[in-house]
Specification:
The protein has 262 residues and is mainly α. It has 2 domains: 127 residues, Four Helix Bundle (Hemerythrin (Met), subunit A), CATH 1.20.120; 98 residues, Alpha-Beta Plaits (2-Layer Sandwich). Helices cover 61% and strands 7% of the residues. The chain is built from 9 helices and 3 strands; from the N terminus they run ααααααβααββα. The chain has a 3-stranded antiparallel β-sheet with strand order 1-3-2, with helices on both faces. β2 and β3 form a beta hairpin. α7 packs across α8. It is elongated, with a radius of gyration of 25 Å.
Length: 262
Amino acid sequence: MAINTDSTFPALNTTEAEEIVTELGRALDSHAEWTEKFRTMLVCRSKPKPTDLRDDSHKRTVFGKWYIAQANPNIRDHPGFAAVGENSERMHTLARELAGCVRDGTDIKPTQYKAFVKSDEKFRKSLRKLLSEAWDFLRYTDPLTGVMTRTAMQKRLDEEQERVRRVAQLCCIGIMDLDHFKKVNDTYGHQAGDKVLETIASYVKQHLRRYDQVFRYGGEEFLILLPNTTTANAKRVLDRIRRNIKRQGIKVSKKRDGESNA
């Protein structure tokens, strides 16, 4: 399975990604519940709910209310979130036509029902796409440093190698190893060591291009992927990062029990 390397979520931490997964999962569940009840109404020819006959029916479901009131900026500002809303409105427009047929006692044409089913599938797909992207973040992201894992690295390198062969573009990789890291753990404790890893990984991510990637290769080793980059440019980028990290101070308390102070 290919990894989604074109994520349009902003830089997330693990907690934020878990919140997105939870919210989108509940949104899908609420829509599934509405769909089951709506299709039962169609089959049994029972009285439609008044809300399903309104022009703004897409705003009246549990999902619709959740969508309108969405306050999580990581979800709300995702470009795909607007597509979800558009697909929901289109699907409810078709559902309203079907509900109107039941209300009026007229036959539902096969083309009408098929259009509704197709629109519902498109809506679900757009919502699942956001959910899948958030799941990929959790699946392939190191929870401590926020960079991608070694598992993700191997898949991503295979994809990049194939791209380089196909379009004949350059690509460079760099390995970053933190000197004297064992001494940090031995002197200040493992929590201080974790803070060093987290701080440096965050710095590297913030000072690369959007499509460059950082992976945690080992304990204190990182791999940096620089697509469409010449060797000379890659050397300049990596040297700049190395120099700046060397000058960067990370304040910790000297406690052997592992506690650290920012």
